[in-house]
Design brief:
Number of strands: 0
CATH superfamily: Winged helix-like DNA-binding domain superfamily/Winged helix DNA-binding domain
Largest sheet: none
Shape: elongated
Low-confidence stretches: none
CATH architecture: Orthogonal Bundle
Helix content: over 70%
Mean pLDDT: 94
CATH topology: Arc Repressor Mutant, subunit A
Number of domains: 1
Strand content: under 5%
Length: about 60
């Protein structure tokens, strides 16, 4: 049996876009609107990427 991934290891396995958006939101505590402005994308796109990233990281961490 392998050891569970750390948060850093799980983040490293995410696609770049998901890793950046989740990091900005959860680690830098940026609002969705601010992330959208920073990246030059619609808020809906940020929300969609956040949802898929949260789902993927939850699975990687064995929490879902």
């Amino acid at each position: 049996m392998t050891a569970p991934l750390t948060l850093a290891e799980a983040l490293a396995q995410l696609p770049e876009e998901e890793r950046i958006i989740l990091s900005l939101h959860y680690l830098r505590q940026m609002a969705v609107g601010d992330i959208a402005t920073l990246l030059g994308v619609p808020e809906k796109s940020v929300s969609t990427v956040m949802a898929s990233g949260k789902s993927r990281i939850t699975a990687l961490l064995g929490m879902g």
